[in-house]
Amino acid sequence: MKHLFLFGGSPPFSPILGGEFASISLSKSKPKIGVLFVERPGWKDYMTKYTASLEAYGLRDFLFLPLSPYLSKKDFKELGSCTGIIIGGGNTEKYRNYIVDTPIGETIRRLYENGVPVAVFLPER
């Protein structure tokens, strides 16, 4: 089964959908959530907006992966082991450049096809 969560605006997850995302992620062995984002000043403090509601459901392991044109083999291996993926909001064009038709996008697509939930926060216009 495939699970795609699309949110308009900023995090956090709504309580019901956050619980569903967490439940699916926790049902897999070694739960770990990958948070993909465009790096900018203050990003570390902002990550709690993504993680706090999921931690309330028992998720504890998070991979924070700033997107760039070049990811290390270690980053790809870590991303490939995630049981949930969150793609942050912000500059849609940058996300498109880093994800669509790239090895990162292919990794996300493969995980999604294998039942890993993917949540995307889309900027409000």
Task: Record keyword descriptors for this entry.
125 residues, alpha/beta
The proportion of strand residues reads: 15-25%
What is the molecular shape?
Answer: globular
Instruction: Output the helix-strand order.
Output: EHEHHEHEHHE
Strand order of the largest sheet: 1-5-4-2-3
Share of helix among residues?
A: 40-55%
Which class best fits the helix and strand makeup?
A: alpha/beta
The radius of gyration is: 13 Å
Query: Which residues sit in consecutive blocks of at least 5 with pLDDT less than 50?
Result: none
Write down how many β-strands occur, each being a DSSP E stretch of 2 or more residues. Answer: 5
Question: What is the mean predicted local confidence, pLDDT?
Answer: 91
Distance linking N and C termini:
31 Å
Major beta-sheet overview: 5 strands, parallel
Number of helices: 6
Q: What can you see in these coordinates?
A:
This protein is an alpha/beta fold. The protein is built from 6 helices and 5 strands; from the N terminus they run E-H-E-H-H-E-H-E-H-H-E. The protein has a 5-stranded parallel sheet with strand order 1-5-4-2-3. It is globular and about 35 Å long.
